[in-house]
Records
---
Amino acid sequence: MTVFTWKRLFILTSLLVVQMTVASGSSTSPATRQQLADAFARDYAQKYQQPLSQVREILAQAQFRPEIITAMQRPAEKKSWYQYRPIFLTNKRIAAGVEFMRTHRHILEKVSAETGVPAEIITAIIGVETYYGRITGKHRVLDALTTLAFGYPKRASFFRKELEHFLQLAGEENISLTETTGSYAGAMGYGQFMPSSYRHYARDYDGDGKRDLLHSVPDAISSVANYFKEHGWQAGQPVAYPLQASPAARHFAAEKRPQKPSYSWDTLADWGYRLKPGTPVPESVLSPQMRLSLVVLEQPHGKEYWATLPNFYVITRYNHSPLYAMAVYQLAEAIKQAYSKKTDPQGEGT
């Protein structure tokens, strides 16, 4: 074997090692993870005046899960719209959403009246996140947060803060540190709240003295609506409108991150985009003062264009992906339409 071939083999082997490291989801060694955990324990104990031995004992019960980091590197939101949409816009999920709305109609109506957030939007969030509470996650939250806080450098700072919030939350709401399960990112309950969002936006709506997003549907419904209200949901305002592009329309790539509404209808028109014919739009929405964003979605043989309004941007505060926000919006619209067909004007099933 020639020297050149040996060099080539060495390079290929090195690349394979790097790929395996990425696939395993961690660029930190066990020793490094332990050092980071020790530093966190010392900081937490000092900040909250907790015995260091107690914090270390809690962290010692966590298990490092490489598959969690692998999942973080392969989120559904990396898909194209035509691949992402069929995950959530299914007949079964729409029908289950209708059933959820009928079962919890009174709570949804009351919360919607109080917050201005439509019942179908609240339902769609819970439908996209956990299939209406059926799939809330199988990972221990403690494992997920410690794995990401000490073994995922890309977002370690964020997850260390979430771990801190989780330890605080456990004491505040009597949540088990070692038994509570959730998503691979550490999100919990019907609406998949991260610990910080749980602490800041959760509400006790059933009056039992506990903000229980893991088991209480009233608390979950109220908390989702409160999250939207606190992030600026505009009651009675629409979310998005479909557009058509002229042959000479300015080209835009599909957005991976949401943009805050900052354009006018005239700007979109100058770029070559118009409302699809027959789209009913209130005069107030067509106001020159209305701010919009342009969302571009990938289809197999082209692109799909939408004018999105401030309420669409609010949905992206729940999950930053425009794909997610559009899936929630379209699922909500489908549930609303199907629900209206199954319910008479008095609100009783036909």
---
Amino acid sequence: MQSRTSHARAGRPRSAAADAAILAATRAALVELGWSKLTLQDVATRAGVAKTTLYRRWAGKNELVVDAVAELFDELRLPDRGSLAADIEGVVLQFAAILARPEARSGLMAVVAESTRDAALRERIRMSIVDRQKRLVVRGRERAQARGELPGEDDAAAAARTADLIFDVVAGAVVHRTLVSAEPADEEWVRRFTQLLLLGLGEAARTGFAGAAGERGPDGKDARGRDG
């Protein structure tokens, strides 16, 4: 079943305070009830608003949960620890800590599962969570390039593809570790993961690999080392 599309409605402007209360109430309900038992009526009661207020803002439960979880990931910050390795470790530890929170864990797993049969919900997750957090990768690479830890790039399209790939690697590894394998992403694991990621970045910089299948490095070979 496809998600209903949210439309802007005429009338009084939205209240930021009401939005914040609703999203906080949604997270509290996720902790106490879990996704399956969460209802819009329960969220409205917790937030002290009418149920119709929620429907004016969100098409349904899934969209509300996505925005409530997205607000948690907006807390991520890129630390400046003096090196690319230390910066990566700082972000990954923050990311793992957010995923360890029950409201993030239950909410994210539920909406991702629901999105497998709902293209509109999948797009909302991409725009509200994934795309908003890719900024950390872009800023981190720019800072590392300014320090001379990574080479600069003249091809903006290739740089964007590389940023997408780095994000996928980091997010995929941490989500799998914490939510699928249910293992801790502690400081030792994060340190080893960062070392492995830096090895890959260093090799990509050395060979000129731009992160897209079929692209060729300066030796005329593709990502698998094959001649053109």
